């Protein structure tokens, strides 16, 4: 994947078709950044017929694209995750980042030089904006941090 990304950067006119076992979101995003002409990303286990594979190779060589539906779904899912965090204010993102570092509300308040109540308000807003309702079975703080880390 790194070689494919580097090849596209140094020779943008070259068609590149990646055949991978799984989706590498970071590299897929880099590979598809800029021009999407002459680029493809297929998953090995989903290339069932030789004819489909050859069609994809020819399409990419001619400047077209060949993207596995799973690659597209994961990249769109990633965008939606980032959109969720986009609804947070800069201060809420900062608080969530400190939560991800394992800080307590009191420690966050000391670091940001605000009251404990202000931090609690930010944490409540974060839960609300991330759609994390109170639940007996889930720990909202952990779920919020996982959302942050996945973005």
Strand order, biggest sheet? 1-2-3
Our Rg estimate from Cα atoms comes to: 21 Å
User: Secondary-structure element sequence?
Assistant: HEHEHEHHHHH
What is the percent of helical residues?
Answer: 55-70%
Organism: Streptomyces haneummycinicus
Keywords: DNA-binding, Transcription, Transcription regulation
GO molecular function, one term: DNA binding
Pfam families: GerE
Which structural traits does this protein have?
151 residues, mainly alpha, Rossmann fold, Arc Repressor Mutant, subunit A, 2 domains, 3-stranded parallel beta sheet, 8 helices, 3 strands, transcription regulation
Give an overview of the whole structure.
This protein is 60% helix and 9% strand. Helix 5 crosses helix 7 (116-129) and helix 5 (90-100) crosses helix 8. A 3-stranded parallel β-sheet has the order 1-2-3, sandwiched between helices. The protein has helices at 2-10, 25-32, 50-61, 69-86, 90-100, 105-112, 116-129, 140-150; strands spanning 16-20, 39-43, 65-67. It has 151 residues and is mainly alpha-helical. The longest helix has 18 residues, at 69-86. The protein has 2 domains: 2-77, 3-Layer(aba) Sandwich (Rossmann fold), CATH 3.40.50.2300; 87-150, Arc Repressor Mutant, subunit A (Orthogonal Bundle).
């Amino acid at each position: 994947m790194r070689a494919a990304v580097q090849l596209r950067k140094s020779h943008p006119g070259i068609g590149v078709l990646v055949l991978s076992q799984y989706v590498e979101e970071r590299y897929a995003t880099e590979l598809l950044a800029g021009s999407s002409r002459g680029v493809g990303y297929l998953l090995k286990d989903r290339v069932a017929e030789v004819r489909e594979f050859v069609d994809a190779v020819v399409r990419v060589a001619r400047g077209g694209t060949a993207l596995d539906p799973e690659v597209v779904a994961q990249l769109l899912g990633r965008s939606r995750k980032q959109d969720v965090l986009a609804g947070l204010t800069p201060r809420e993102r900062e608080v969530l980042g400190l939560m991800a570092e394992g800080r307590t509300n009191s420690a966050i308040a000391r670091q940001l030089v605000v009251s404990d109540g202000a931090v609690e308000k930010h944490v409540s807003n974060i839960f609300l904006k991330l759609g994390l309702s109170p639940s007996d079975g889930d720990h909202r703080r952990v779920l919020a941090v996982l959302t942050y880390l996945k973005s």
